[in-house]
Design a protein that fits this description.
This protein is mainly alpha-helical. The protein has 21 helices and two strands. Strands 1-2 form a two-stranded antiparallel ribbon.
């Protein structure tokens, strides 16, 4: 692709400028992806160097430290206790005691069972008292995986705390050698509500993120490397085991093992992904521009009852989607109000296949989503439009700009600059928009070829609704759902990183200030 200088670019026509920008955008995508991988490599390299530096510092601290520091390598908190920092020493010692006790009582067992995810499954044993066979439940693969991951997290926390203990001893030696006094326990408590208050506030949210966000993500990723499904639930039926990359090979394989006229997992995933991206695009930008136009129409001078029009639109989103979407779904059914009205008026001879044909169903859900999404964008755009300086419009009118030129040169650039990050989050949110698709169509109409791969796949199914179908029913394939979840994360992450780095509001933050 030819690179134009600033002067050459200004000489181009409007059409060629747009084409040049479009080409530049797509040509920049490989560079952005390459920059992403280079960034990941630099992160890995930096982590390795950090580990090396930490190891050298630990060795240096042990070699040059006094006997109190050396004992602290084995008994955490001993150096703090010996130097009069009782509170710190007791906390370090208590953490070590709790860790050793947990590892001895339970942690060691969960770690030892983690490679196998259980050895003895449910078995039938004869009960003499009841004169019948009774099922005895033994190992639980689900618990082994969950508590095994928790134990690994606990070990990481212990290693970090142990390293902090070593640093505290080194720092204490340096402070004492300089003739200064160490902080007492009372000083530490005061610090928690003064200069270290940010750490006090962030401690609980950080623990919550680790337990309720990071841990489930790690657990979900690990499930993708097992055969966890309805028949291998890990406890009541059969234990599940590690299968390595088999599930990824199955999902990304183009070979259909279910007979003629069927699709492979990879073909099904590609088809659902393409519709998901198409849906996200139209659901995002149709709502964006139509919501903006509605806000501009209501804000226009001379329009009366502005509050009434806004209230009517807001009522659309005030009603829970569980009610409104299910009702709309029935309206567009074969025997629904829409078809009944059109047939009674004599405009059609037979019911329109709103939910029975793929193209009809996809167009219908996009149109209905516009009805749902316009109020959100109208409210957002209203606030932004009111903040655009009116001097810009007055100057444009004096220069002879018409309504379209004012919109394309002032309103739209300002809106795109301010709402750029919102557009990105809205796009990714629509990729995972479960409510609209599931409540309107449930994924219908069914795709017979794709359904043989996994679950009852429909032409309007998004990746998120397909994932839901995979995890429900007697043949729930949790491992496959985990693989789909990981692939969705990869796709969304790549799109988000590339688009985020080319947003004007990120690259030129000072333009509209």
């Amino acid at each position: 692709m030819k690179k134009y200088s600033d002067l050459e670019y200004l000489k181009l026509s409007k059409g060629k400028k747009r084409l040049y920008k479009l080409q530049s955008f797509f040509c920049a995508i490989p560079q952005k992806i390459l920059a992403l991988f280079l960034g990941l490599w630099n992160i890995i390299k930096g982590c390795c160097l950090k580990v090396r530096d930490e190891a050298l510092d630990i060795y240096s601290t042990f070699v040059h430290g006094d006997w109190k520091t050396k004992v602290s390598f084995l008994v955490m908190g001993f150096g703090c206790l010996a130097r009069g920092q009782i509170l710190r020493g007791l906390l370090f010692l208590l953490f070590e005691v709790v860790f050793i006790g947990y590892m001895f009582i339970a942690g060691g067992y969960w770690l030892s069972m983690l490679p196998s995810l259980g050895k003895v499954g449910p078995s039938e044993e004869y009960n003499v008292i009841f004169d019948t066979y009774v099922t005895t439940y033994n190992d639980n693969s689900f618990k082994i995986l969950l508590y095994g991951v928790l134990t690994i997290f606990f070990i990481i926390a212990f290693v970090y705390t142990w390293r902090l203990n070593v640093k505290q001893n080194k720092l204490a030696e340096q402070i004492l050698s300089s003739g200064k006094k160490l902080r007492s326990g009372k000083d530490d408590l005061k610090s928690l509500v003064d200069d270290q208050f940010h750490k006090t506030l962030l401690s609980l949210p950080l623990i919550g993120i680790l337990v309720f966000t990071v841990l489930p993500i790690v657990f979900m990723i690990l499930v993708a490397f097992t055969n966890y499904d309805g028949t291998h639930d890990g406890y009541y039926n059969n234990l599940f085991t590690w299968v390595g990359l088999t599930n990824f090979n199955t999902m990304l394989s183009w070979t259909a093992n279910t007979g003629a006229g069927t699709q492979s997992y990879a073909a099904t995933f590609g088809e659902v992904l393409s519709w998901t991206l198409m849906w996200a695009f139209f659901a995002t930008f149709s709502n964006y521009f139509l919501g903006m136009f509605v806000a501009m129409a209501i804000n226009k001078k001379g329009i009366k009852l502005k509050k009434l029009w806004r209230t009517i639109l807001v009522l659309t989103i005030a009603i829970p989607q569980f009610i409104s979407l299910l009702y709309v779904s029935k309206m567009f059914a074969k025997n629904g109000i829409i078809n009944g009205f059109l047939m009674s008026m004599g405009w059609i001879d037979e019911a329109l296949p709103f939910w029975d044909k793929a193209s009809w169903a996809r167009i219908t859900v996009i149109i209905i989503n516009i009805w749902i999404g316009i109020p959100h964008l109208m409210l957002i755009a209203t606030g932004i439009l009111m903040n655009i300086p009116q001097d810009l419009y007055e100057s444009a009118r004096i220069d002879g700009a018409n309504a379209w030129q004012q919109y394309s040169k002032i309103t739209l650039p300002y809106m795109l600059f301010v709402t750029g990050p919102y557009l990105l989050t809205s796009f990714t949110g629509n990729m995972n928009n479960f409510n609209v698709i599931y409540l309107l169509t449930g994924g219908a109409p069914t795709n017979p070829a794709a359904s043989s791969a996994a679950g009852t796949v429909g032409y309007t199914d998004l990746l998120i609704t397909w994932l839901f179908k995979i995890t429900t029913g007697a043949e729930s394939q949790y491992y496959l759902a985990s693989v789909v979840g990981i692939l969705v994360f990869v796709v969304v992450s790549l799109i988000s990183l590339v688009v985020y780095n080319v947003l004007p509001s990120i690259k030129n933050e000072e333009d509209f200030q």
